[in-house]
Amino acid sequence: MAYDLQKEEDVKQYIENLGIEYRFGCYHEKKSEVCHLLADYLEAIKKDYKKAATVYKTNCMDYKYGKSCTKYGNYALIGRGKDKPDSKEALEYFEKGCELNDPTSCLHAGVLLTATGPGVTVQRDVPKGYNYLKKSCDARDDMACHYLSGMYLTGVPKNVADFNPHKPEKNKNIDYLIKPDPKQAFNLAMKGCEYGNLFACANVSLMYKKGDGVEQDLEKSKKFFQLAQSLKNAHETTKEIKFQQGLEDKQ
Questions:
Q1: How far apart, in whole angstroms, are the C-alpha atoms of residue 173 and residue 214?
Q2: Residue 250 has pLDDT above 70, yes or no
Q3: Are 220 and 200 spatial neighbours (Cβ–Cβ below 8 Å)?
Q4: pLDDT digits (tens, 9 = 90+) for 19-37
Q5: Rounded distance, CA 234 to CA 8, Å?
Q6: CA distance 141 to 134
Q7: pLDDT at 242 over 70
Q8: Average of per-residue pLDDT values in the chain
Q9: Domain residues of the chain, as ranges?
Q10: Of residues 226 and 243, which shows the higher confidence score?
């Protein structure tokens, strides 16, 4: 059937038929990619977050679809489609997604396990979180590489209360789980930049300018600053809500 998408009635009919198609592909053909698309449809078109959460969760656990684990983990984290947020449940689903090789799940699990501050209820486990972040970075997730770079840039203290970000000289004698390592920080920032992270590119520029972790090179500093600006401009001009995430590489 041909649709005239200039006509409101045709658009409505097209959207309804799309939902029917996704339901058939998910419930009858049991295709995990289509189940994920169904959940995206329920989320983006129907605004039925409770049903979307159920489909994401089922698709994660029954059909082992990593991207659905990530989405349900995000729902649990902010309490969407649920009575209240549950960061422990979120971590469970991020870890499941990471086992299923979804880099975004690995990133989110790593951040939850290494983060500190108000509202963080997950037990801190830096070594475990580091491994999740490394797996994500190795799978070319730009944010994971950028996050790891930051960990090496400042170091990860054993006791967060001992760390003073405003007086670095006072941090020399504290115990670290990950010691500051400018060279590692630079290498990971470079990776993140290569994968398209504008913040990583900005850090590479700054490190070249200061000679932190790499030999000082003002020309290269300028080059990476310009690259960061280009990525920033590109990001701002292509902001959009994406549908059909089930067939994309990232959430």
A1: 24
A2: no
A3: no
A4: 999 999 999 999 999 999 9
A5: 32
A6: 9
A7: no
A8: 90
A9: 10-137
A10: 226
Residue found under tokens 């991207």: 67
Cβ atoms 154, 165 nearer than 8 A: yes
Least Cα distance to 36 among 74, 71, 82, 75 occurs for 71
- List pLDDT tens digits, range 117-130: 666 789 999 999 99
Nearest to 73 by CA among 94, 54, 88, 51: 94
Residue 163's identity, in one-letter code, is F
The one-letter amino acid at 136 = S
What is the model's pLDDT at position 118? 67
CATH class assigned to 10-137: mainly alpha
Indicate the angle between helix axes 87-99 and 126-138, nearest 10 degrees.
Answer: 40
User: Is 142 in contact with 200 (CB distance < 8 Å)?
Assistant: yes
Tokens 């409505």 — which residue? 12
